Amino acid sequence: MNANDGGITTESYSVETLHFYNSSNMSHFAYGLTANIAAVVLYGSNFVPVKKMETGDGMFYQWVTCTSIWVVSLVGNLLLQCPKFYPLAMVGGVIWATGNIAVVPIVKAIGLSLGILLWGSSSMLMGWASSRFGWFGVDAQEVSRPLLNYCGAGLCLLSGLVIFFVKPDVELHLELESIPLLIDRRTNSGSYAPHSSVFWLDVIGPKNRQFIGCLLAVAVGVLYGLCFVPVLYIKSHSSCHDSVYYGASLYDLDYVFAQSSGIFAASTVYFAVYCAAMNNKPRVYSRAILPGFLSGLMWTLGTYCWFLACNYLSSVITYPIVTAGYGLVGALWGSLVFKEIKGLKNCSIFCLASCVVLIGSLLTAFSKL
To answer: Between residues 197 and 230, which one has the greater pLDDT?
Structure first.
């Protein structure tokens, strides 16, 4: 059929097809970027409800948060009509819950600002590298502009190194007046302060406390970066006829419930071991229950948004954006609201790190186009 017959020529058809493809690609980019932004805000804010609450060693708060994660993901699983459950995805949840045990001590030791940026940066590096280079049996993911992707990931990592030089101003414990029902561990021996309430950070000096907090933050970030590898592995082997995961769903949201189940199972085991180690006298803070549930709700919604973004943009794009982005949001909460960063030098370094992470995230995002 030619133009004289009133039909559509091959050339015009090709142009229209290309236009439709570009339009669809831009729509997916917009959806993925929107989901990324939502994940960044939710992840970066999920510790805010409990920031002003005394949580002790964090074990009880951890269990409450993980219970909330499982409940919210159960509702999401029902809305998704109960996709097939893969036990391997639970391994990612176990890895995440293992790292999450140290979050409360990290925030107590070095603050929300420094802690969340450090574990966000190390998580970004591990997650991005495993996706980009195909580590741990997952398929290596390609991008349209590799140089932009490398530069973006490198800048996101650099932001974590820059923020390391910030000296946060944090208190190990909250003031008693803000939570009158809690035990004050700083009172003299003549007052009521049982030995079991002593926290291990209490006996460590400020410099050693900051060093341990930074080291824990990096280790936690590595574990966070590995927690999504099992899901990527399942998806990578869904097209292999000789694999047990042949035909597995490529829709990332279908794996949230399985991962959350691993989180709940691991946290329950850890809390049971903790109760046994404490001679059945765990440090339970009732005021942290509702904030803990809210933190779990925000984390789970953030995970759904992140997995949705992965569906549109791929994990090699979303990993640097989300991990660096939520670190920046958490740092903003800590510096602007909770006043953890003070002084001209600290504020200057923080602003520099913020600019670096924003540029890195943008470069990583545009490397997909």
So the answer is: 230
